[in-house]
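Shape matters. As here.
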Amino acid sequence: MSEDGVPSREMHPSVVGRADEMTALADAVRRLIAATMLNRAPAADVERVARDVDEVARQLEQHVPDPPPPVTNMQGGGVVADDGSFADHMAFDFVVGRFNPMALPIVVSFEPERVVGRGQFTLPYEGPPGCVHGAVIAASFDIVLTAANILAGAAGPTVSLTTRYRRPTLLHVESVLEAWVERVEGARVHTRGRLLQGEKVTVECEGVFAVLDRERTISLARGGH
């Protein structure tokens, strides 16, 4: 928090000073992932491109520390704000991380009593033909429900997550994931959510999370019990 009590932006330390360049790299790799899946290039062209991409990967690997550092930034505060700081804090998250090319990413906003995540899933996230993979939806709910817990001051790791797939969730259609805390019982927070496309609810979700302070969560990540 800043001195005036307003949540502060917490940029992941590994991207400070090169955020624009890392954004461009992640966006390019997202395009590469889609093109890898969808291309119908001749075998010889695919072989040539594979060599080129392998060389690019080799160049980046020269700058990877040994051992690799954790990509989840558990230090600092100020992750609840409608100015992008939640995503900045989780810069490499699988769901909301704009520097993770596997992430769509889902864009999260904070409202007075709930959290809303928005995204339009594309072909790399396909499960059944024309529809979003169920595992992708579950992963998206996990982080959006977690954001609702943070908003309520009851954050902690996931204990269980139950998703009910009421109808197919379509690709290339805006998906709106809403999440809110239903109740807190001792060391457990019960959180609910739903996914809408237009006015139709395609998925409902219920999560149970352990309520832990930040230091305890960090100790678990380091192998504590």
